[in-house]
Amino acid sequence: MENFTFYSPTLYEFGRGAEEKTGMLTFLMGVKKVMIVFGKKYVKANGLLERVETSLSAIGIEYVEFGGVAPNPTDDKVYEAIALARDKHVDGMLAIGGGSVIDTAKAVAAGVLYDGDFWDFFSGRSDVKKALPVGVLLTIPGSGSESSGNSVITKRETLQKISLRTDSILRPRFAILNPELTFTLSAWQTACGIVDMMSHIMERYFSPTSRVEVSDRLAEGLLLALINEAPKALSDPTDYQARANIEWAGTLGHNGIVGCGRREDWVSHFMEHEISAVYGVTHGAGLAVVIPAWMAFMAHHKPSKVAQLGRRVFGVEAVDDRTAAIEAVASLRAFFSAVLRMPLDFKALGVAEPDIDLLVKKLHEDKGETIGGYYRLTSKETRQIYELMLPATAE
Amino acid sequence: MENFTFYSPTLYEFGRGAEEKTGMLTFLMGVKKVMIVFGKKYVKANGLLERVETSLSAIGIEYVEFGGVAPNPTDDKVYEAIALARDKHVDGMLAIGGGSVIDTAKAVAAGVLYDGDFWDFFSGRSDVKKALPVGVLLTIPGSGSESSGNSVITKRETLQKISLRTDSILRPRFAILNPELTFTLSAWQTACGIVDMMSHIMERYFSPTSRVEVSDRLAEGLLLALINEAPKALSDPTDYQARANIEWAGTLGHNGIVGCGRREDWVSHFMEHEISAVYGVTHGAGLAVVIPAWMAFMAHHKPSKVAQLGRRVFGVEAVDDRTAAIEAVASLRAFFSAVLRMPLDFKALGVAEPDIDLLVKKLHEDKGETIGGYYRLTSKETRQIYELMLPATAE
Q1: pLDDT tens for each residue of B29-60
Q2: A229 interaction partners in chain B (CB closer than 8 Å)
Q3: Which of A201, B33, B192, B361 has its CA 20 to 30 A from that of A37?
Q4: What pLDDT, on the 0 to 100 scale, is given for residue A168?
Q5: What does CATH list as the number for A184-387?
Q6: Which fold has domain B185-387?
Q7: pLDDT at A371
Q8: A11-181 — its CATH code?
Q9: How far is A167 from chain B (nearest CA, A)?
């Protein structure tokens, strides 16, 4: 266990009807005129946007709408929103949606108060020193962005998908989570969200730091909860309790608590970001392909933590670490495939002929010569992992 | 899972040398003159107080010392500290110690800004509406007070030991945790702290609310971590990693995260508070006597959650809930006794002839005719539980 600072001051309002508190919570964060960021038609069609606006108006808060944010959100929408936010003099952000919407709102929150190009924060040229307060009404769980200080934006021109990580300045002041709002998510969206949640937990779990028993047990507990609840939500999309447990696990999986006291990994995310930036696949589906490949590589090169996952989460009984790790990979693949109906290789992901040269090149250009917290990977090794994602050849 | 609000804005600074940040963190909470609350000689003798004062002075913060707080802290020290704090015009509190010191600092923080008698907050006559900011440097883990908005104070005159619970106004702004500061705790202090931590987790775990899979898994994970690390810290008091995991588990066990979305129980605490108020026993040791008795009663009256604890934490395999619950009680008693060397009955606790009439009477006077979240207990039933704490009669 290493030294750490943990500070997670987001207020979570969780449960049926929680969205009715949007006005009050926005008021409490001291905002007079808020920009509402959302995605496609959905929040308009189902009346949610109108209900939120009523809740804001009732307490005297003005608002400006900014819709049309798409999955894998891009810098052009951020520039557009920053210009509008400045023009309208908004002093706070309210994201209604999932990770793409929240991440856009965060980038705008930082960009509005910055004289230079907001992309400086993502390229590492500058640090976020001030930002408008951000509130979230979550409708698509998975990204964990409602509980993190992070934002992931893709630069359209170069297809760089970059994750900006801040300690707390971009952490939402509040996050409203009503599991009922997730009833209408498709099985595909639900499953992609669950993979993303599990990945946030596992990226922290796969750590070179020893003796992190508390953080390990929390990670394993959240994974067990997700594995237990996922089939229930998929077989009955209106199972409130399954939806509630999944949503809350996703939030806790990314608020930092699972990472306390240890170095984290994040290679699976880096590798997937290259895939989704180039091929536009859904992040969660991409992760379902990447994670088992990364784990299979580790089963042969550094099996210990993969074996622990297998034993404590999947009930693997093998005594030998390598065998236990291989069985863990098989268990996870079976869960992704049979329960979540996720793709497990490039082809099933819709990428028939992946340009692995390009993916490896971009990956190491963006992230450095070697990458990874759990195990340091060279470009030769990341190539091997990408190759493990190719469909099995006919026998 | 029920609706809930979760807000835990305490900043945790964890690790070796963390206490060096006391001055900076006190400064960041906007305090100019702080009252340092501590217990007996210890913090003076080992130089910790001096190091903290140096850290405060270095950043220009004045301080007033208030020492001598004893275990099971009483109202008279709170009155004394409030008078001193007003006289010296302090604008913040810094607690250096364990639960007794932190709870005293919190009571003072609320009392200083209140025109009436601070006991009004504990008697339920008034709510805390404002309070000085409180920071904590933890030296005795167990109470979880560093992460909660609660304070437990005993009224000397009537021996009422009352817990005041606030949402966030009395939550410490920061908590500094350096596991090295716990190396000198005796095996007894260490074990009492671990029982207290486990009790905070179990009081929330024993809930009538169904489908709280995430909160259950987190609770079980923290218990597993404590059970795994406890023998290591007891056999080697300077095992930093064991001390670190125990301290962090204790903090997370009481910051509210384990209770999200469910009704909690707290009867074991209520029953123990009567024992320690009347007989002055150490809270953790008292809990080691109370909890297994409460669980044994439940094994016969409502075994389901006790059985789940047995299966998921102690590896009990019995299919029948009642049998599994009975085995869970036996496992917990064995852990308390063989590993933690805790007393398991009144006599071993040092209370040779407990006045059960008095305990039952005070309990229901303080807490109402029936008590408990998991199972509603009448005075006849709480008497039965107290009687289960009597030593087994000779065969």
Answers
A1: 999 999 999 998 778 878 999 999 999 999 99
A2: 213
A3: A201
A4: 86
A5: 1.20.1090.10
A6: Dehydroquinate synthase-like, alpha domain (1.20.1090)
A7: 98
A8: 3.40.50.1970
A9: 12
- Distance between CA atoms of residues A167 and B273, nearest Å: 40
Radius of gyration of chain A (CA): 20
> What tens digit of pLDDT does each residue of B302-332 get?
999 999 999 999 999 999 999 999 999 999 9
Query: Where in chain B does DSSP place strands (E)?
Result: 4-7, 11-14, 33-37, 62-66, 92-97, 134-138, 150-155, 160-165, 174-177
Give CA separation, B233 vs A242, B18, B240, in Å. Answer: 38, 20, 8
- CB-based burial, B266-282: b 16+ in 10 Å, e otherwise: bbbbbbbbbbbbbbebb
CB of A43 closer than 8 Å to CB of A96: yes
Mutation target to probe the B interface, by most B beta carbons within 10 A, among A214, A239, A247 is: A214
Compute, in degrees rounded to 10, the torsion defined by CA atoms B41, B43, B44, B46. Answer: 110
**Residue A197 distance to chain B (closest CA, Å):** 13
CB–CB of A214 and B5 under 8 A?
no
Instruction: Tell which residue, A133, A136, A159, A165, has the closest CA to residue A75.
Output: A159
pLDDT digits (tens, 9 = 90+) for B145-170: 999 999 999 999 998 889 999 988 99
d(CA A346, CA A387): 9
Task: Quote the minimal CA–CA distance from A84 to chain B in Å.
Answer: 32
Q: Which amino acid is at B90?
A: V
Using CB atoms, pick whichever of A5, A249, A252 lies closest to residue B11.
A5
Is the Cβ–Cβ distance between A99 and A145 less than 8 Å?
yes
Q: What is the mean pLDDT of residues A230-253?
A: 98
Distance linking the first and last C-alpha atoms of chain B: 46
Contact A336, A195 (CB under 8 A): yes
Answer whether B240's CB lies under 8 Å from B350's CB: no
**CB crowding B217-256: b at 16 or more within 10 Å, else e:** bbbbbbbbbbbbbbebbbeebebbbbbbbbbbbbbbbbbb
Q: Kindly determine whether residue A210 and residue B9, on different chains, have CB atoms separated by under 8 Å.
A: no
Residue B245 has pLDDT above 70, yes or no: yes
ipTM of the complex in this document: 0.96
| Chain B residues with CB-CB distance to A3 below 8 A | 14-18
Query: b/e per residue, A138-150, with b = 16+ CB within 10 A?
Result: bbbbbbbbbbbbb
Looking up tokens 């692995």 gives A356
Q: Is the pLDDT of residue A40 over 90?
A: no
Q: What is the mean pLDDT of residues B363-391?
A: 97
Q: How far is CA A45 from CA A41, A48, A70, B63, in A?
A: 6, 8, 16, 59
Q: Mean pLDDT in chain A?
A: 96
pTM of the model: 0.96
Q: What is the pLDDT of residues A345-354, one digit of tens each?
A: 999 999 999 9
Q: What is the pLDDT of residue B394?
A: 54
Mean pLDDT for all residues in chain B: 96
Residue B395 pLDDT > 50, yes or no?
no
Q: Do domains A11-181 and A184-387 have the same CATH topology?
A: no
Domain spans, chain B:
11-181, 185-387
Question: Where on the phi/psi map is residue A224: left (φ > 0), alpha (ψ -120 to 50), or beta?
Answer: alpha
Q: Is the pLDDT of residue A394 over 60?
A: no
Averaged pLDDT, B98-108:
97
Task: Please answer yes or no on whether B6 and A14 come within 8 Å at the CB atom.
Answer: yes
Contact A231/B at CB under 8 A? no
Q: How far apart are CA A130 and CA A109, in angstroms?
A: 9
Instruction: Report whether pLDDT(B23) > 60.
Output: yes
Q: What is the pLDDT of residue A42?
A: 74
How far, in Å, are A254, B376, B389 from residue B265 at the CA level? Answer: 29, 9, 19
How far apart CA A304 and CA A259 sit, in angstroms, is: 18
Task: Give the pLDDT score at B177.
Answer: 98
